[in-house]
Amino acid sequence: MSGSRINNASHSAQGQFTYAVSIQLLSPENQVQETRGHMCGGALFTLSHVVTTAHCILREIDNVPQPIPALRVFAGSVDLTNDTSPDLVRAVSTVSVHPRYTGPPAFVNDIAVLTLASAFPASAATPLNLPSANFNPPDFTLCTITGWGGAAIGQNSSSVQRYTEKYIYNQNLCMTIYNKIPLAKNILPSMVCAVSLDIITTNCEGDLGNALVCAGTFTGVLSRSDDCQASSLPEIYTRVSNHTAWLRQISGSSAVYAPGVFVLMAVFSLMQVFIKA
């Protein structure tokens, strides 16, 4: 599994990112660790559905999902260690990997959904709205990514949630950069490239699946990082808008849909017609 940690990032404030989840792998060893078995990140898009990257939850040895009884999801607090309220932890009932996920080295359609055994209470978490299918933020759009990846080299994860800012990188330039790197993945329209504003903050171990939120809209989930390097090489995210229909199909009518700007303009125009009439 490729590494990813939010290295050199800032601590999140309580209640700042209540959509973010810690996907945890339970074992006798993990349960006694301060990070409670944190494996990777994800985001709620309903109170009972989590989106993450497919290779976050697939075992490297046989490319099948981790056993469902060994998975749980933590949300609603920035502190993995000290906040032990039962409202913050949910068991997983099903795992849905995108049917056209290719796996390494391409990582096309690198997205999966965890359906929870019971919903988080609204007092604990707030899901992200799914973007419209045509949502495509312009270059340099400011974004935020948050998670529990390790805070320093050699740490698998952090007990406290951290966040940093990214901005959308030009897709064509991103393709050109990766095309020059031997054995690098192809950059496709179903992917989003983003880089840090300060260069030094980067994803590494424990941050796969973290949500990229741009201008308040759920934009991507972390698929490939810069392997903990403080550089300007773009990180790659699975583009959520390319999978909105599939996510809604998995979650049913409970999934909230955020209409694109053109839809909102059309609704506004119709309202104006009725008002004038």
From TrEMBL:
Domain Peptidase S1: 1-252
Keywords attached to this entry: Disulfide bond, Hydrolase, Membrane, Protease, Serine protease, Transmembrane, Transmembrane helix
Keyword Protease tagged: yes
One Pfam family cited in the UniProt record for this chain: Trypsin
CDD domains according to UniProt: Tryp_SPc
Parts of the chain that traverse the membrane: 256-275
PANTHER family the record matches: PEPTIDASE S1 DOMAIN-CONTAINING PROTEIN, POLYSERASE-RELATED
Protein family (similarity comment): Belongs to the peptidase S1 family.
Protein name: Trypsin delta-like
Organism: Bicyclus anynana
